[in-house]
Design goal:
Elements (H helix, E strand, L loop, with lengths): L1 H8 L14 H12 L10 E6 L2 H7 L6 H6 L2 E8 L4 H14 L8 H12 L3 H25 L3 E5 L4 H7 L7 E10 L18 H4 L5
Antiparallel strand pairs: 1-2, 2-4, 3-4
Helix pairs in contact: 2-7, 5-6
């Protein structure tokens, strides 16, 4: 029940204590949870960017709907997806897979050929919509890992993607931002939601069983 207890502990923090920083060890664990997240066809078509630099956070603030949280949190973690699937990207992932497993390159060519036929026929917008959904799995695991470490966090879609993409020059990396995660330690007196009773949909209304 440890995971359930951790998830019951966490909430989306609305105010952070700017004087408290999350250790590198804990940030590394949170990021590692994202790296180990399952993804469609194992392509892991996204990257995680970690911003601790205060000057850079101040630049990103102009695109945030909750600027105080971005400014005062310890770190901002950006989940950024590939701008689209390409033959080269798919091959790179599967070449790495075969190399690590000691297999001959091309061992999975019938499968990768199928992936290329499917994804390359789609528009960049269709590709990115699929890729973006994969990043949310990683975000969820990172939130859970932060909770296990008793590190406060906030999942964020309320921001201007174009601002984040421009400031971090994500186009040069072939990436587009999808979501953010603020991490740090709550400023308890000002974290208004932290003072409220947690509310969830009752289990009997949330779960539909087919027996």
């Amino acid at each position: 029940m440890a995971l359930i207890e951790d998830l019951n502990w966490r909430h989306a923090v609305k105010a952070y204590d700017a004087t408290k920083k999350v250790s590198k060890q804990n940030i590394d664990k949170i990021v590692e949870a994202a790296r180990l997240a399952p993804t469609s066809s194992g392509l892991q078509a996204f990257q995680v960017l970690v911003v601790e630099n205060q000057e850079l956070k101040e630049k990103l603030v102009k695109g945030a709907l909750n600027p105080e949280c971005m400014r005062d949190c310890s770190h901002v973690i950006i989940f950024a997806g590939w701008d689209r699937y390409t033959e080269e990207r798919i091959d790179k992932v599967y070449n790495h897979t075969t190399d690590v497993r000691g297999l001959e390159r091309g061992r999975f060519s019938s499968y990768t050929d199928m992936l290329k036929k499917m994804y390359l026929a789609q528009s960049a917008e269709e590709n990115f919509a699929h890729i973006a959904r994969q990043t949310y799995i990683a975000l969820g695991l990172s939130l859970a890992q932060a909770a296990e470490l008793k590190v406060d966090s906030t999942p964020v879609e309320g921001f201007d993607n174009s601002v984040v993409d421009e400031i971090l020059e994500l186009d040069k990396l072939g990436l587009k931002s999808v979501s953010l995660m603020y991490v740090g330690y709550a400023d308890a007196p000002n974290d208004w939601i932290g003072q409220m009773k947690k509310v969830r949909t009752p289990t009997e209304e949330f779960v539909v069983e087919f027996k």
